[in-house]
Amino acid sequence: MNDPILTVTDLHKSFTLHHTGTMIPSVAGASFTVRAGRLTALVGPSGAGKSSVLKCVYRTYLPQRGTIRFAAADGAMDLAACDEPTALRIRARDIAYVTQFLHCLPRQPAVDVVAEPLVAIGAGRAAARAAAEERLRELDLPERLWGIPPATFSGGERQRVNLARGLVHRPRLLMLDEPTASLDRRSAELVVAAIRAAKADGVGILAIFHDPDLVAALADEVVTLRRPEAPCAA
Amino acid sequence: MSDPVLRVRDLTRIHGPGCPRCRELTGDHHGTNICPVCGSVVAVSGVSFDLWPGEILGLMGESGSGKSSVVKLLHLDDRPTAGSAVFRDRDGALHDLATVDEAVARRLRDGRFGMVHQNPHLGLNYRVSAGGNIAERLLCSGERRFAAIRERALALLTRTEIPAGRIDDQPGRFSGGMQQRLQIARALAPQPELLFLDEVTTGLDLSVQARILDLILEIQRELGVAMIVVTHDLGVVRLLAGRTLVLRHGRVVESGLTDQILEDPQHAYTQQLVMSAL
Q1: How many domains does chain A have?
Q2: pLDDT at A104
Q3: Do A61 and B260 touch (CB under 8 A)?
Q4: CATH number, residue A127
Q5: Residue B149 in 3-state DSSP?
Q6: How far apart are CA B142 and CA B189, in angstroms?
């Protein structure tokens, strides 16, 4: 049940800005494990590279060093080194990444925003919508909002849409970047309940919380990242 | 994983006499694609990539970077100086686009490929009606039954949100966005396996652009057709393409997942492009 699904070893990430000749270190040697049905929290000061770690796992950032072993549905692989079509396939099916910001088409109704990950892996539109509605109901998003694009929603409503979208295709790994930042108490409670339900469902979670109480309440493992060295000449 | 629809290797196109040093003395490090020895233009050099079934691949770069030249070679509007581009059709037959004869080239263009140009005048026949534009493509791909042609034309016009009542109007009477949608309908007529989109939203109003981009995504979801999207617009690749190649001076300077290219660009030129975005 609680097998490791993600094992990150000695991850290093820096950015080289060619026009200024600067090298900006971001992640300095992160190592940790995420298990199925468990939550690993990344903590550390601002600038310690917490969000960068999530982006490396998602392959939005290319790490300079280290391995990112992921147990996908069809076998283990290193996300730092696998080919791009494989990374896209794993993303679509096995990993959900929920940031503080909901990136979606400004003209797409909330229910379709949530249904999209299912449609992308081949579910029929009607079935995907039904699953999306179920998630939105669980997260207590008022039904009158389902047909409206989330651009006009409050922060709490938008964040619930975002989380519903992350959970709709039941990923193996869910990554959360401050999912309760700037939420009122009621919205935060709903998000926390959804995180607990996902854990109970066997989803492995890698999360960044700004609230230490949430770390204490939800995390099974806490990984402290240290701030890397200052930028230097490339 | 299934086989790629297209396997491109070392694709090269040199305009001019060419010499043994053309490729060596041009490109990113030299800051030019004009050979200093013989004056030839190295439009495309050493371009290699795979295109997977159902995938949308972005080709990004500034004017003159070679992105449209690559598409011309793949759409058989031009022939490469060197390299190969093997297209696997839905029946599993392989065609090297670098060497196919003109008869096969015509068959592929008419039946297996679709092209949507930036300029609708290149993609549409303005002397016939909207329905006629679609019918032409269907006739070329072997359909001869009038009722079937009319029915398919109507279905495609509806799919691309052109009112059925305008089937007999000539494209010159359509708005810019509608002409682009008619080009898409025409390109889709023979149910192509590979669709090329060359700067299809450039010069259109923002709301019209959005509608066309949505339509392209919907079509990709419905039909699973593989697409190559040429654009200089970072927003277009972000929305459409899972992977992107960045071209400069006819070379691929960087390739990767589109969000990686935009958020963690590795090459100095890509960094400059991303920083120039509004």
Answers
A1: 1
A2: 74
A3: yes
A4: 3.40.50.300
A5: helix
A6: 12
Backbone angles phi, psi at B20, to 5 degrees: -60, -15
What is this model's ipTM? Answer: 0.91
pLDDT per position as a tens digit, B153-211: 999 999 899 999 999 999 999 999 999 999 999 999 999 999 999 998 888 888 888 88
Question: Contact A18/B268 with Cβ under 8 angstroms?
Answer: yes
| CA B74 – CA B90 distance, rounded (Å) | 17
Q: In B, what residues contact A, Cβ < 8 A? A: 1, 50, 52, 55, 210, 214, 221, 239, 242-243, 255-257, 259-260, 263-264, 266-268, 271-272, 275
CA geometry: angle A26, A29, A35, nearest 5 deg? 110
Q: Could you give the CA distance from residue B119 to residue B121 in angstroms, rounded to a whole number?
A: 5
**What parts of chain B have a pLDDT lower than 70?**
1, 278
Which residues are CB-contacts of A222 (< 8 A; sequence separation ≥ 6)? A40, A41, A43, A215
Question: In angstroms, rounded to a whole number, what is the distance separating the alpha carbons of residues A89 and B90?
Answer: 22
CA distances from B14 to B17, B35, B59, B70, B96 (A): 8, 10, 19, 12, 19
- Confidence band of A130 (pLDDT split at 50, 70, 90): very high
Task: Please name the helix (run of DSSP H) or strand (run of DSSP E) that holds residue A93, with its range, or none.
Answer: helix A84-93
A35, A58, B31, B189, B254 from A72: Cα distances, Å: 13, 13, 43, 39, 27
Domain containing A11: what range? 4-233
DSSP bridge partners of B257: B243
pLDDT digits (tens, 9 = 90+) for A67-97: 999 999 889 999 999 999 999 999 999 999 9
